[in-house]
Amino acid sequence: MDEHEPLVSTNTSNPPPAQITTASLVRRGFSLPFIALGFFLLYLFGSTSRSNDLRLGQSRLIDAQLQESLVLGNLTYEQNATRYSSDLRTIFNAMMNVGHAPVFYSDIAGQFKGKWELLPFSKNISELLGQHSRKTVDESPSLEFPKESVSETASQGNMDLTAGGKFSFTIISNKTSNEDILYINGNMNIDDGYNSFDSTLHGLHFKRNGSIYLESAVDESELFLHNIPKMMLDPHSFQSALSVIRSINMDYLNTLKKQLDNGMIIEHVDTSGTSSAKCRFLLFMQLQPLPAKLQDILDLENVQNEGVYVIQPPQLLADMALLSPNCNSSLKSIQLRGIKNSIFISLNHNAGVFIAILTLIELVLTTRQMQQLSSLSARTKISPMTMGMMIILDAYMCIVLISIALMFPELFSPFVAASFLKFCLFSVFEMRYLFAVIQARRRDGSDSLERSFLFRVCIMFLMHSLWIPQVVSNAKRNTWRAFNRSFVIGTSITRFLLPLYAWYYQDIIIASQSLPSAKILWALAVFISIQVGVLILQDVQGPRIFIPQQLFPQTYDYHPAFPPLSNNESISLQMDTIADSEIDSNQSIYPPTSSNTFYSTTATRRTHAITYEKEALSSRTELEDRHCAICFTEITTVTSDHPFFSTERLKYMVTPCNHLFHSECLERWMEVKLECPVCRSDLPPVY
């Protein structure tokens, strides 16, 4: 075989490209601009609607920050500071006893890892924090944790917070108006050996004494700036923290206003995850003094970013106590080990260089393999599957390296270089060698599978089966509307147009013997249409419309049936009442993003909620004057004998605590928080 012979053969029975006229090509592609225009209009319509929703959410976020400013303006140490018990103060004093003139790192941004164990107390955590006697201001009802007894562990989910486990968190430091105080935010993970849950945290770092006060919550929307000053142990720290928090809130408020004016809308991201644990923690952290002089540490932090160490960086260590009132749990972590971001970046910079060197070695070995074993007989001995696995691995590594380079600007140079070398390895050398191996095995007659017509058809249908996993997931989890309908239809059409285009212009396509026939394309179109149709049917009729109910485990049905009532049956409606002086009846209720938590007080929601007795729920046929507690508009319910019951019942939802809402309103709420807008009860996910 001549080494310059083409690796991919073409079908000689097709007419040469010269026989295809320009007019024919133009006539065949005449409809392509109209298809592109249709997709552009579809995208424009969807993006406009999305932009309006984001602007509304941004406005609510600004309103909440204005309310936050009012709350911060009314805080005082005498009325709002946490009244810690003597047991807690003894622990805090022992933890913060760091000796005379200690030396600490001024910036601790980085990662901390360690082990946690139970911190036993004879009293409930709420009593230790003095929440039974704390005075709260009217503007901040969300500061109160749920009152739970020791036996009430629903917030723990499947977590065991008694046996010990692993603990880690990552934090970022931000400068504030006080040069001695840093604002900290980040993420935390608690693992008990079998289960784990993530949460978001924020707080303040006092650089002079190395003390850190943090608050964590599973959902970021449950974190509030005005909770941080309340954690302080003395009046001086309270006033310093309050001044800094007020400045942070004002800066954030101004930033939101500028973003709204400039059209830069930030979408709220749900950070609650899928964990069943909903524990909120108060974290008290104390850095351990460094065995070095203050000037040496200052010099070290000044030159560390340049990669030059005046001394060997001391180990970053800390002790921590964690208190969770809603889970009634108290934990401690001793000798937490931390690694600063500057050191982390330096180590990963070296890792990027090391990967680049390894890839260069692989490039040299691959080129030698291609040169030494370039004969036809040698290529037939090589397995295409082995080469394919090597290509997949190197392509995956290329994607990982370029992702790291984009996420960490400090690591861009070494990782993008390593990614480029990986790209050259698999795309230029390994792919070329794979084609040569396949060509050699075809001549040898040992690749009947690769050349088989059935194999190519199966691969094509497998590549266009992308909606089948979503259909199965919808049926298994009893969910729907995972994708926008325009996205499903548009993506399916665009992916089908590529093989259609190749078939339509097969006279000028290389390796046209591998192209599908018209019958296969029709079958492929029907196959894709069936997938899209099933997805749309699940959105309209329900995700389990075509599967027997007994095949799946029972889950809570948010759309219950309303059977007709007999003449002697009655309907019982109960309206929770609250004094008019405590609420504003004209105030609207929004989902609990960080933008509107202050407007979504329990008292306000209960005023407009409709509560149904459990006995009446199974036998009512029609409810009069029903209104959604979120949007305040009327809700239309249907009975089981309604001709369109299967579709109409999906328009309303009834929670396990027997509160009625519009489906759209409650689903938007549950995208942010899995609790009832009226009574704060936990809600099961919409499976």
UniProtKB/TrEMBL annotation:
<dbReference type="GO" id="GO:0012505">
    <property type="term" value="C:endomembrane system"/>
</dbReference>
<dbReference type="InterPro" id="IPR013083">
    <property type="entry name" value="Znf_RING/FYVE/PHD"/>
</dbReference>
<keyword id="KW-0472">Membrane</keyword>
<keyword id="KW-0833">Ubl conjugation pathway</keyword>
<keyword id="KW-0808">Transferase</keyword>
<feature type="transmembrane region" description="Helical">
    <location>
        <begin position="343"/>
        <end position="365"/>
    </location>
</feature>
<feature type="domain" description="RING-type">
    <location>
        <begin position="628"/>
        <end position="680"/>
    </location>
</feature>
<dbReference type="Pfam" id="PF12678">
    <property type="entry name" value="zf-rbx1"/>
</dbReference>
<feature type="transmembrane region" description="Helical">
    <location>
        <begin position="517"/>
        <end position="537"/>
    </location>
</feature>
<protein>
    <recommendedName>
        <fullName>RING-type E3 ubiquitin transferase</fullName>
        <ecNumber>2.3.2.27</ecNumber>
    </recommendedName>
</protein>
<dbReference type="Pfam" id="PF11145">
    <property type="entry name" value="DUF2921"/>
</dbReference>
<feature type="transmembrane region" description="Helical">
    <location>
        <begin position="29"/>
        <end position="46"/>
    </location>
</feature>
<dbReference type="InterPro" id="IPR011016">
    <property type="entry name" value="Znf_RING-CH"/>
</dbReference>
<keyword id="KW-0812">Transmembrane</keyword>
<feature type="region of interest" description="Disordered">
    <location>
        <begin position="137"/>
        <end position="157"/>
    </location>
</feature>
<dbReference type="GO" id="GO:0008270">
    <property type="term" value="F:zinc ion binding"/>
</dbReference>
<feature type="transmembrane region" description="Helical">
    <location>
        <begin position="487"/>
        <end position="505"/>
    </location>
</feature>
<feature type="transmembrane region" description="Helical">
    <location>
        <begin position="453"/>
        <end position="472"/>
    </location>
</feature>
<dbReference type="InterPro" id="IPR021319">
    <property type="entry name" value="DUF2921"/>
</dbReference>
<dbReference type="InterPro" id="IPR001841">
    <property type="entry name" value="Znf_RING"/>
</dbReference>
<comment type="pathway">
    <text>Protein modification; protein ubiquitination.</text>
</comment>
<dbReference type="GO" id="GO:0044695">
    <property type="term" value="C:Dsc E3 ubiquitin ligase complex"/>
</dbReference>
<dbReference type="InterPro" id="IPR050731">
    <property type="entry name" value="HRD1_E3_ubiq-ligases"/>
</dbReference>
<keyword id="KW-0732">Signal</keyword>
<keyword id="KW-0479">Metal-binding</keyword>
<dbReference type="GO" id="GO:0043161">
    <property type="term" value="P:proteasome-mediated ubiquitin-dependent protein catabolic process"/>
</dbReference>
<keyword id="KW-1133">Transmembrane helix</keyword>
<dbReference type="GO" id="GO:0061630">
    <property type="term" value="F:ubiquitin protein ligase activity"/>
</dbReference>
<feature type="transmembrane region" description="Helical">
    <location>
        <begin position="414"/>
        <end position="433"/>
    </location>
</feature>
<keyword id="KW-0863">Zinc-finger</keyword>
<dbReference type="InterPro" id="IPR024766">
    <property type="entry name" value="Znf_RING_H2"/>
</dbReference>
<feature type="transmembrane region" description="Helical">
    <location>
        <begin position="386"/>
        <end position="408"/>
    </location>
</feature>
<keyword id="KW-0862">Zinc</keyword>
